[in-house]
Amino acid sequence: MIQGVLGLYPSIVRYAAGERRGKVASYQSKHRYGDCEVGMNRIMPVLEHSTTKYNAKVLICICLLLAGGFAGTAKAGINKWTAIGPGGGGSINTLAIDPSDPMTLYAGSGDNSFIFMSTRDGGVFKSTDGGANWHAVGTGLPGFFDVRAIVIDPLKPSTVYAAGGGRLYKSTDSGASWQAVNTGLSGLAITTLVIDPLNPLTLYAGGYGGVFKTTNGGVSWQAVNAGLGNRTSLNGLSDVFVSVLVIDPLNPATLYAGNNGSVDDSISGVYKSTNGGASWQAANIGLPDSVSAIAIDPLNPLTLYAGGYGGVFNTTNGGASWQAVNTGLPFNSSVSALEIDPFNPSVIFAIVQDELGATVAFKTANGGARWQEVSRELPSYSSISALEIDPLNPATLYAGGEGVFKTADSGASWQAINIGLNNLTVSNVAIDPVNSDILFAGIDAYYKDPLNVTLFKSTDKGDTWQAVTGIGRAPIIEFDPLNPTILYAGSSHLGSSSGSVFKSTDSGASWQALSTEPPLVFGVNAIAIDPTNSSTLYASSASQIYGRYGVFKTTNGGASWQAVNTGLTSLDVNELAIDPVDSATLYAGTGGGVFKSSNGGASWQAVNSGLASLGVNELAIDPVDSATLYAGTGGGVFKSSNGGASWHAINTGLPPDSFISAILIDPLNPAMLYVGTNGGDVLSHESGDVYQSANGGASWQVVNNGLPSNPGVNVLAIDPLDGATLYAGTHGHSVFKITFKTLGDIDQDGDIDRSDLARITAALNQPADGPDDLRDLNGDLSIDALDARKLVLLCTQPQCAMSSPNR
Q1: Residues paired with 205 in a beta bridge
Q2: Rounded-to-5 percentages of helix, strand, coil across the chain
Q3: Using CA atoms in the order 222, 228, 231, 236, what is the torsion angle rounded to 10 degrees?
Q4: Rounded Cα gap, residues 113 and 110, in angstroms
Q5: Nearest to 188 by CA among 208, 218, 215
């Protein structure tokens, strides 16, 4: 019998290839696949009165067994958050090139406006193709990590160190995973790292607090600040801010520490140690007060160059004296980065900001005797703080600022290389209500030049993005619900004289600043558009600067505005929401609770009964039952079922006192809710996650699969046409996307049944359409018997039941 069965193996294979089509059945704890009953750990033929039919069924079941085990891999791209960009534009503080493979780069990201504490605009990114593509390498790193320095072990490049704030992490697998190596670093806010090129277990970390040293690869650290500044504290911290460290490549016991602006100018400049940091001496003769960059000649380490306010300075005696070498540089220029050609040390590159604020690349071929401008292609808004040269091809350099830039012709031309460098802070994601392929991402850029790009558009659900220019800082975007070719954008630009609200009538291709009213000088927090008359809209601010704050209204599409604040006793307005049924009713979420207007903003009254936390950040209204509202606060989520007359907390499953930064209601299923948390502010280390409720907020569960640790969720948006695809705008990690699908429900009709199996069997032995092909249940990019079997195991609904004709 067995030999006969095996002899028919080719026929079994043909069956698996699709020559026969099976059927699905459900029978108690078993399932039917054609003529097989499938249990949890076996496949058996269905008993028949006919021996011939039974033997045939044995062959079919053996076919399924030969196809493999029951286990399958997780479905790729489904029920998992995926980073989709946009990439680039976030602050890049440091770059490092693998000395053994210059195509491998690391970039450290973080908001360089914050030095003392780590922020969410941070992390480590890696490229293995010379910067053409990047990906985050954050396993083991905290969610809030402002990376200021990265160094690579020159003898074992799989060992990498990343530091920022008061924390330092080490990877021994090329960034795949990280471990904290902070013991002894208490009090030091790290901004710079160097590694001993001859003994890589020895490293030095510098920053606010002076210099610390390890001799065991980071296992333990100790302060080495004797002579560094005027005084040290009891725990060894210095009063000197060390902005840059360099080490003598031939004699690593000699180090130089540059000081970029200590409180006391008498201790500013450069310090030198000749005994591995045991003691330091000032080496400042001829230097300015502030030094932000130092480069050392790799062949003659007594020659160094220092850059800062006032240009470039040179020493040929190991820092005993310095002289300006600024011929050809702009007057009163500031040098932020220096790099020396390792093959020809007379060639030096400098990144300079002139007195007008332009970022300019300069080069000297004679050791600084004369400089020549080589490029103005680096963006003026980008403060370049990192410059690295390819150790094997010195015509190639990389610059880090607001993104990463690359030159392959010694600085003559530069290109942004930011694909996958998803490190932007996204405050708003807006989806076209008619064509959900189109979406916009509004970027927070409070510390960037007003001309910086802060708006991106995608026409393919976030697969690719294009920068939108001509709008300034405008992270708040709203579509006209009646005519989606019209959009409004709220500006966050402090002191803008060009208007707070912008309007586009051509799907975002061009923008015009509306009248300088509403005079929300600090920027717009929220825009709400009347769903029945889109010429009426409201804009609000939470700032009370210059007395211009509160809610403003226009009834002519923004041509003119008037304040509508009567009764609005708390004027720091964070959010606005309009009743979808009665547009004369609207709500304002403020620092003093929720306010309601029943007359289009003419008057307001507080509706805070039961609202235990009055700092309201977010509001959402049930699209079917507009008396049901949700308020996101600094103390969790609250719900009202009577138009705000009373509220009660709905926080089961949420962390205590969650700072709710986003609330979303599924428009197709209003009982399905989502909230995002972000810890309250950019300096907070609280959790930042996404939570889901399928019962109107009665309980919540976290849905973070695929998100980085504590992403800091600023905004959530849902595809209005399918209700299954969500977007999360994060603080420092750009946008993530997830599609919630029921595994096995291929036709998405809510059931796993015969029609789903038919879609698989009709395509057996064919390649999947891609990672999101719902027929490819086991994620191997092919549609085969494994997928059919897995669907049978998932099929538990009564709709699957198909009794055998002979039973």
Answers
A1: 193, 212
A2: 5, 35, 60
A3: 0
A4: 9
A5: 208
- Contact predicate 764/788, CB 8 Å: yes
Question: Which pLDDT belongs to residue 802?
Answer: 38
Residue type, position 15, single letter = Y
Q: Is the distance from CB of 635 to CB of 675 less than 8 angstroms? A: no
pLDDT of residue 779: 76
Which residue from 420, 416, 445 is spatially nearest to 84, judged by alpha carbons?
A: 420
- Mean pLDDT along residues 187-195: 93
Other Cβ atoms within 10 Å of 74 Cβ, number: 13
Tokens representing 532 are: 């029945």
Residue identified by tokens 């003691």 is 279
Residue type, 79: N
* Strand 537-541 relative to strand 550-554, pairing: antiparallel
Q: Which two tokens stand for residue 752?
A: 């796993």
Euclidean distance between CA atoms 718 and 706, whole angstroms: 18
381-390, 596-605, 673-682, range with the lowest pLDDT: 673-682
CA dihedral 502, 503, 504, 508 (to 10 degrees): 40
**pLDDT higher than 50, residue 73:** no
Classify 25 as helix, strand or coil: strand
Token pair of 101 as six digits: 């493979």
Query: Is the separation of the CB atoms in 531 and 481 below 8 Å?
Result: yes
Give the tokens for residue 91: 């602050």
Give the residues across from 621 on adjacent strands.
Answer: 629
Residue reference for tokens 């302060």: 223
Contact 691, 701 (CB under 8 A): yes
Task: Evaluate whether 404 touches 416 at the Cβ level (below 8 Å).
Answer: yes
Pairing of strands 179-180, 36-38: unpaired
Confidence of residue 749 (pLDDT cuts 50, 70, 90): confident
Q: Which residue in the block uniquely carries the two structure tokens 């089961």?
A: 652
Task: Identify residue 419 by its one-letter amino acid code.
Answer: I
Amino acid, single-letter form, for residue 48: E
Q: How many CB atoms sit inside 10 A of residue 251's CB? A: 11
- Does 520 score more than 60 pLDDT? no
Indicate the helix (H) or strand (E) that contains 3.
Answer: helix 2-7
Secondary structure of residue 600 in the 3-state scheme: coil
Structure-block tokens of residue 523: 């920027």
Radius of gyration of the chain (CA): 31
Q: Give SS3 for 62.
A: helix
Contact 382, 402 (CB under 8 A): yes
- Helix orientation angle between 51-66 and 785-794, rounded to the nearest 10 degrees: 100
Q: Which helix (H) or strand (E) holds 494?
A: none
At residue 691, what are phi and psi to the nearest 5 degrees? -125, 150
Cα distance between the two ends of the chain: 25
Q: Are 586 and 580 a contacting pair, CB within 8 Å?
A: no
Nearest to 408 by CA among 422, 417, 419, 398: 398
